[in-house]
Amino acid sequence: MGMAVVDPLIELRDVNKYYGELHVLQDINLTVGKGEVVVVIGPSGSGKSTLCRTINRLETIKSGSITLDGQPLPEEGKALAKLRAEVGMVFQSFNLFAHKTVLQNISLAQVKVRGRKKDQADQRSRQLLDRVGLADQADKYPAQLSGGQQQRVAIARALAMEPKALLFDEPTSALDPEMINEVLEVMQQLAREGMTMIVVTHEMGFARSAANRVVFMADGRIVEDRAPDDFFTHPDSERAKDFLSKIL
Ligand code: ADP
Ligand code: MG
């Protein structure tokens, strides 16, 4: 059976990036099709966060190309702000505005970047809060919420921009164990609804159940890019075998 034909949304071709002498991304080639969920795993320091940050153009690259829907990533200005909205990012550390309410956190960029009227933005924010199970928390401040609730607000905030894709960089790593599932369930739901997602995570249950592909990185390279079942049952490389033996 061949791989399903994908309609590419995100394409990285021969991407190289350095931090000083450190060759942090080495000849990265990665295509993410529309509606695909790609889980990225690998040891600490292998370049997973940097990969996410280059796709969102929080980092520039030395060589190669990155395209979104066939278009090169914009360099600056309004187009760059639009890109950041179209490729939403959810971080380990929530990054909510502490002095704004939950509702304001979700509405703000809709008004500033998407140009929506405030009441339209608020209406959409309330719909999204309902979708992530937080309809009753709109007027609270982030510090009044649990970590799991804050992360669901961060996801709602990213969704409010109507992104073409979402990048998740270890979204559950900062959470107490009992809060991990409520966040993964929201992500599972998004995956089922066809959201294109790149997810850096150590949650192998999520990878097995939600991912179309697992990308294993080590030392700035993509070492394996496979269907989850293949990867977990027959990892090819010694690096992946070693990594899996430590985390499973
Ligand atoms: P991962 O997310 O897989 O743990 P990172 O992408 O965060 O890996 O980091 C890859 C490598 O790049 C690491 O060696 C890290 O120390 C280094 N690195 C990350 N960010 C910077 C930076 N801003 N400046 C210099 N080195 C960095
Ligand atoms: Mg990281």
TrEMBL record:
Enzyme Commission number(s) of this protein: 7.4.2.1
What is the enzyme's main class? translocase
**Cell location:** Cell membrane
MF terms from GO for this chain are: ATP binding; ATP hydrolysis activity; ATPase-coupled polar amino acid-transporter activity
Q: Give the chief site where it resides.
A: membrane
Pfam families the record matches: ABC_tran (PF00005)
Q: Which residues form a coiled coil?
A: none
**According to the lineage, what is the superkingdom?**
Bacteria
Q: Where is the ABC transporter domain?
A: 10-244
What GO cellular component entries does it have? Answer: plasma membrane
- Name the InterPro entries on file: AAA+_ATPase, ABC_ATPase_HisP-typ, ABC_transporter-like_ATP-bd, ABC_transporter-like_CS, MetN_ABC_transporter-like, P-loop_NTPase
What CDD domains has UniProt attached to this entry? ABC_HisP_GlnQ
Q: Which reaction does it catalyse?
A: a polar amino acid(out) + ATP + H2O = a polar amino acid(in) + ADP + phosphate + H(+)
Q: What keywords are annotated for this sequence in UniProt?
A: Amino-acid transport, ATP-binding, Cell membrane, Membrane, Nucleotide-binding, Transport
Stated membrane topology is:
Peripheral membrane protein
The entry sums up its family as follows:
Belongs to the ABC transporter superfamily.
Protein name (Swiss-Prot/TrEMBL) = ABC-type polar-amino-acid transporter
Provide the taxonomic classification: Bacteria, Bacillati, Actinomycetota, Actinomycetes, Kitasatosporales
